[in-house]
Amino acid sequence: MKALWLENNHVSLRDIPQPRNQNEALIKIRKVGICSTDLELVKGYYPYTGVLGHEFVGEVIESSDISWIGQRVVGDINAVCGKCEACLNGRPTHCENRTVLGIINRDGVFAEYTTLPLENLHRVPDSISDEMATFTEPLAAALEIQQQIQVKPTDRVLVIGAGRLGQLVSHTLALTGCDLHVLARHSLQQNLLTARGIRIISEEQIQPRKWDIVVEVTGSPNGFTIARNAVRPRGALILKSTYKGDVTVNFSSITVDEVSIIGSRCGPFEPALRLMEKREVDPSVLIVDEYKLDDGLKALDKASQAGVLKVLISM
After folding, report:
1. Low-confidence residues of the chain, pLDDT below 70?
2. Which CATH superfamily is domain 2-123+282-314 in?
3. Tens digit of pLDDT for each residue in 142-171?
4. How is residue 11 annotated by DSSP?
5. Closest by alpha carbon to 4, among 73, 52, 45, 69?
6. CA dihedral of 207, 210, 216, 218, whole degrees rounded to 10
7. Which residues of 193-209 are buried (b: 16+ CB within 10 A; e: fewer)?
């Protein structure tokens, strides 16, 4: 089968064997989305060799449970053991033996086929298009914030960054009725937010030490600095992006101000699917281009350009 293969910071289109795993469903990929993690892996932020990609929608073509065959599905990216301390204590996304689709010891979905355990799969409602379904994983990640902390309508909430994930974080936080502002630098990002009635704020307008909740989605040292300066004493600072290398942090000020710093990544798929089914969030507005797998290298190049939001690859 054809696949986009990453090795030594170089991506190539290759023919590789179709995956086979008797304990997992075989899925024919329909469409995939390119996210910032894929692009950072190419740059070498984490050592990975294999097929890239983890945002997908596909069709089950082989399964030990025949009721899944023919079903259109999306899938949780963490395949877990179910036996380690983390799994047994309700923290499966931190499984000590996990593999992660297209990230850790498991080939991803920039390919014609993939496999996943049945427990990872979620059926896609008929009313959700393939294009929209590719956003299930990042939309779930955005919803994870509300799994971790309570966001009240009275909270002043600031989101730093309005790229692929920042848009979804903003769209989901807006549903809480909180006093939401977003730092967005590119005109397309700003237009998408204002179309949803979400207020834009410039860096100069951000009041220091006044925000109850600040979500940092840029993954940059500068973004972290802005976020840290904005959060109030006893406020919450949510880190929604990974950082390449080290970030200098004044932990004494964080201790004195009693700021809660919360890392946040994977989230719940079923609520994400419900939001899209009800059209409470329509992430397909973020799509700027779509390529065939044969042109996957062009797709990655397009996605890496400044200000570009979601690029899809179809099989």
Report:
1. none
2. Medium-chain alcohol dehydrogenases, catalytic domain (3.90.180.10)
3. 999 999 999 999 999 999 999 999 999 999
4. E
5. 52
6. 0
7. beeeebebbeeeebeee
